[in-house]
Amino acid sequence: MNIDYSKLKVSELRALAQSELGIQDAKGFLKSQLVDLLTKNKVETKSQSVEKPVKEVKQSFSKAEKEKKDPEAEKPELTDAFSQREEKNSREYKDENDETAMPEEMMKLDSGNIAYGLLEVLPDGFGFIRSDNYMPGENDVYVAPSQIRRFQLQTGDIISGNIRKSKEKEKFQALLYVNTVNGQPASSVIGRPRFEDLTPIFPNERINLNTEPNNYSLRLMDFIAPIGKGQRGMIVSPPKAGKTTLLKKVANAITQNHPEINLIVLLIDERPEEVTDIKRSIHGQKVEVIHSTFDELPEHHKRVAEMVLARAQRMVEQKEDVVILLDSITRLARAYNLIIPSSGRTLSGGLDPAALYMPKKFFGAARNIEEGGSLTILATALVDTGSKMDDVIFEEFKGTGNMELVLDRKLQEKNIFPAIDITKSGTRRDDLLYVADEMEATAKLRRMTNNMRSEDVIEGMLRTFATTKSNQEYCKRVLEM
Q: If 0-12 CB within 10 Å is exposed, 13-18 middle and 19+ buried, where does residue 418 land?
C-alpha cells in the first residue's frame, strides 16, 4: 500500500521518522524535509515492506502522546497540600498492596513493625490508624483507599497490620497489609451488617450492679431503676450531687460482675484532675477512658464523641455488648451549639435547634439488638446550674431515654447520699428486667412512699439496707410490711 507522505500531519511524519529511520528527535525537521527523508528511505528499501496504514500510525502516535502526558493532569486539583500528599501516597501504595503481589515482594517492603489502633476513614477515602485517645498524632499510620475498599473498613474498626518501609520525605508511616480487623481475620468482616440495619428491641437482660452489701448507691439504683443491656439511661443531676462518683461505682460494678462487656467511659468538657481520678479508679481488661477536657476546643469534643460512637457501633455489629458512660450530654450539646452553622432559629438560652441533632443521634444509638449484641448508654444531664440553656437541653432529651435516675438537690444540701429521688426515678418496661418478687416489692414501696417527702423515703430505705445483706432480702422485708 502506497502512502502519500505529503498528506500526513507533521506529528504523524515525526512518529514515522522515529520508528522507520531511527531519528530520536524529529522536532528539528521541517515537513518537507521529513517527506523527502521518508520517500528516499522507501525507494532504497523496495524489497522490504515497511509501510504502515495511516490508522496504525495515528494509533501509535496517540499512544506515545498519552505516555508522555503527565498523569497528574488528569486528576482534579486537590484542595490542599496535605490531601495532595495523601493522594500521591494512595497511588503508590495501591500497586504495592495488591493481593496478587508475590510474598517475596511484600517481604522486601515489610519494615518488621506492627501497627495497631483505631481506624479513622477520612472523606477523601484514605484513613489513619489512631492510637492515643482516638485523636490524630505524629505516630499515626496511613491506610490506603485500596485496602479500605477491599476489606470494607469503616471508622471505628480496630485494625492491625505490618508497616511498610518508609520512603524519603514521607511524613507518616504506611500500612503494607491488614492482618486483623477487630481481632478477626481481615477477610471475615467483608459483608458484615450495618449498625443502622439491625433490629432494636427493649432491654431484656439485666446488668447486675450489686457488689457489696454496704454499697447503698448501687443497691438503690439496681432496685429502683434497673439497667439492662441496651438501656438508654439518663442521670439527671444538679451540681455536686454525686453524679461522677455514681458513674465510677457503676463502671466498677460492670467490670466486676460483667467482665465480658466492653466499657467506654467518655468524659466531655471535664476537669483534668477528674480524668486522672477516673482512670485510676476503674480497672478492667475491656475498659477505655476517652476524654476531652474543658480546655480543649469544641471541635475536639465533637470529634472524640463521634469516634467513640463509631467504635461502639463496630463492636455491636460483631454481636458484642458495649456500655458507654457519658459525662455529660449537656456539655456535648453545648459544644455542638458553638460549632454548627446557624440555622436561623434560636431556642431559649441561645440554643440552636440544629445543635441537638448529633447529641440525639449519639444518645439514640443505644439499643438492644435482636440479632445479638447491645449498646448501652448511661449519660448525665445537668440541671439547676443557673443556665437557661442547660434546662432547655434537658427538656429536649427528657423522654428520649428509657431509664431515668434523678438526683435531688435537697438531699444533697442535707448531705444525704445517694441523693436519689425515688419517686421520679425508674425504668420503662422494667417488667422485662425484674424477677417476680422485685416487681411486687417495688410497686408496693412506691405506693407506700407516694405522699412522703423524698428525704424521709431515702433515709428509711438506707436504714433498712443497713440491716439487710442483699436486695433479695430487702424485697422480702418490704413484702412483709
A: buried
